[in-house]
Amino acid sequence: MKTGTRALGLAESYVGEAGRSTLAGAVVRADRVVDDFRFSSCTVGGTGATDTAVDCWEALDRPDVRYVLVAGVALAWYNIVDLERLHEATDRPILSVSFEASTGLADAIRREFDGDAAAERLAAYRALPERHAVDLGDDTVYVRSVGCDDPARVVRAYTPEGGRPEPLRVAREAARAADRYRRDPDA
């Protein structure tokens, strides 16, 4: 992959206040140069994470971005991201990267939600593509992808060290910083 190939990393941070989770979008080149940021928020426990991700994409207006990486699929307390819809909105390959082996979220969704709220999240969760393990040397990540022929190659290209692709690491740090600022702008 060329060093200037850009990816948008989307990650969230929630500190337990105000019922909103901060979503950060970070544009990062394969050579780790950070190009741009966008921020938005979605309701914790809601169903608008996909809309928020699309809003970040549209606000960036960066046709040079070639990939979109999302930190997981259940942002802001089971706010499931529709990877197909995000792919359609961006016309880019979408890769959802999670960092732990898991038996899935279905039991947790059933435990945390009832009735229609559980059914809606379970339907969205079951519609997701399967996860596949990607070996990163000392680490393993789990990737779901839409519109990407070789997700392992993309994840490895953006993971120079450690177990977190750089666009997701930068987006996570930016979301955390934005949350700290929102909590206490004078700190």
TrEMBL record:
Lineage: Archaea, Methanobacteriati, Methanobacteriota, Stenosarchaea group, Halobacteria
InterPro entries xrefs: Endo_dU
Species assigned in the record: Halarchaeum acidiphilum MH1-52-1
Stretch list, region Disordered: 159-187
Basic and acidic residues: compositionally biased ranges: 163-187
Similarity field: Belongs to the UPF0215 family.
Protein name: UPF0215 protein MBEHAL_1821
Entry superkingdom: Archaea
